[in-house]
């Protein structure tokens, strides 16, 4: 009885093996005819028998599966099959198909990376670009720059959970993003040119058309990755975690202006203008001739009702950049804000002629102080608001010829 059961069992195994081989042969023939749908159908049937395949058939199965899905441009499935093949053959120590699969995997990587770049640069489809950059990374794990691109694209798509996952993976991998440029000077133009690789640059140098070879390394992206983790956490509403992540980023590069500003603007979003102002002041020490920093410090001061400080910082911004329209505009508006309290006091002293006249003159003095800054802002770019506010100042200062000249312009802009 035992012998009979054994015979039946062996018979079933041989039938299973026969079925496996038949399905793989069918898939192989379909691939040669470029009938990839039929190949996938056979592979799908064979997959149900995968647990009973011997090492040789299993390797062949993964190889054919990769080819079949690659033919259908189903890159994710193809990549998974080829990676399973290489992992499996490494495990068993016999490389029957890995060498054949390698160039196919290379072609897949090229196609997917080109698709990802098109989706990002031309189509602005950041979500699908992210998926394809990540798939490129999975096809070629040695090139972690694709994972970085996937993270950036996910951020652009506002897919913050995915972005966080990718940035965290980069951090765990110790990704730096440091690259080396092999530069040389073009003797004819005098420009420094990136010549690709060291070997290629050596060839160009031998022509005598280039000189002064220089190797230039890019800065590490470690702190930037940590910053991006912080910004994603902020967008997820995890403020305490975001601030902790930003603090860690700044430890890695305390003199990085962009990191400092990113940290500052988290506080700006939180309406913590005291913290925002402190960090902007720190940024000014790193870049003392940056008018935007003084402008932002002016905004922070104005939001804290520190008008004198705001005026001082706006003026500094205009001194550095005489075309900084927003600084001129904010300067004028910050000065004229003083009129609110003056006009209110005037209304409370309608029966006190002497006090009223004093307040009226004070109101005119404020208008006179603000006028040149508003005129400058209007000269840099005229808008309905600048014209309306200029008319108000001119009328208050009894400069009716100027306000009358603006009235038809105001009507035209309003209409």
Written account of the structure:
The protein has 415 residues and is mainly alpha-helical. It is built from 20 helices and three strands. Strands 2-1-3 form a three-stranded antiparallel beta sheet, with helices on one face. Strand 1 and strand 2 form a beta hairpin. Helix 1 runs parallel beside helix 3 and helix 14 runs antiparallel to helix 15.
Write the layout of secondary structure elements.
Layout: H1 2-32, H2 36-47, H3 55-71, H4 75-92, H5 98-121, H6 126-139, H7 145-156, H8 160-173, E1 180-186, E2 192-194, H9 198-206, E3 210-217, H10 222-235, H11 239-252, H12 257-269, H13 273-286, H14 291-303, H15 307-320, H16 325-336, H17 338-347, H18 353-380, H19 384-396, H20 400-414
Antiparallel strand pairs: 1-2, 1-3
Descriptive terms for the model:
single chain, 415 residues, mainly alpha, three-stranded antiparallel β-sheet, elongated, disordered N terminus
Compose a concise summary of this entry:
With 415 residues, this protein is mainly α.
């Amino acid at each position: 009885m035992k012998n009979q059961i054994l015979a039946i069992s062996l018979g079933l195994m041989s039938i299973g093996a026969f079925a496996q081989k038949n399905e793989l042969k069918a898939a192989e023939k379909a691939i040669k005819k470029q009938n990839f749908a039929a190949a996938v159908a056979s592979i799908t049937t064979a997959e149900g028998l995968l647990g009973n395949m011997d090492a040789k058939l299993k390797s062949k199965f993964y190889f054919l599966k990769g080819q079949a899905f690659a033919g259908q441009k189903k890159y994710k499935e193809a990549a998974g099959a080829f990676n399973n093949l290489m992992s499996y053959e490494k495990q068993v120590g016999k490389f029957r198909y890995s060498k054949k699969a390698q160039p196919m995997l290379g072609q897949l990587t090229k196609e997917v990376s080109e698709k990802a770049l098109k989706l990002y640069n031309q189509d602005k489809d950041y979500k699908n670009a992210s998926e394809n950059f990540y798939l490129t990374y999975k096809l070629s794990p040695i090139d972690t720059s694709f994972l970085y691109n996937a993270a950036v694209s996910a951020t652009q798509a506002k897919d913050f959970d995915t972005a966080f996952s990718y940035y965290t993976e980069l951090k765990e991998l110790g990704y730096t993003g440091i690259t080396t440029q092999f530069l040389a000077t073009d003797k004819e133009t005098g420009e420094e040119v990136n010549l690709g690789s060291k070997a290629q640059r050596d060839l160009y140098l031998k022509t005598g058309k280039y000189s002064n070879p220089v190797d230039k390394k890019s800065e590490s992206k470690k702190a930037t990755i940590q910053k991006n983790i912080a910004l994603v956490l902020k967008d997820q509403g995890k403020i305490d975690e975001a601030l902790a992540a930003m603090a860690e980023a700044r430890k890695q590069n305390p003199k990085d202006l962009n990191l400092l500003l990113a940290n500052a603007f988290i506080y700006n979003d939180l309406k913590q203008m005291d913290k925002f102002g402190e960090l902007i002041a720190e940024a000014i020490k790193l870049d003392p001739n940056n008018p935007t920093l003084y402008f932002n410090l002016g905004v922070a001061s104005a939001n804290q009702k520190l008008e004198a400080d705001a005026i001082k910082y706006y003026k500094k911004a205009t001194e550095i950049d005489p075309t900084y329209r927003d600084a001129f505009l904010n300067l004028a508006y910050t000065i004229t804000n003083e009129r609110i309290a003056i006009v209110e006091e005037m209304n409370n002293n309608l029966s006190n002629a002497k006090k009223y006249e004093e307040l009226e003159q004070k109101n005119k003095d404020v208008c006179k102080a603000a006028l040149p800054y508003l005129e400058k802002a209007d000269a840099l770019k005229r808008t309905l608001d600048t014209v309306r506010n200029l008319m108000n100042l001119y009328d208050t200062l009894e400069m009716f010829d100027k306000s009358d000249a603006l009235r038809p312009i105001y009507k035209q802009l309003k209409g």
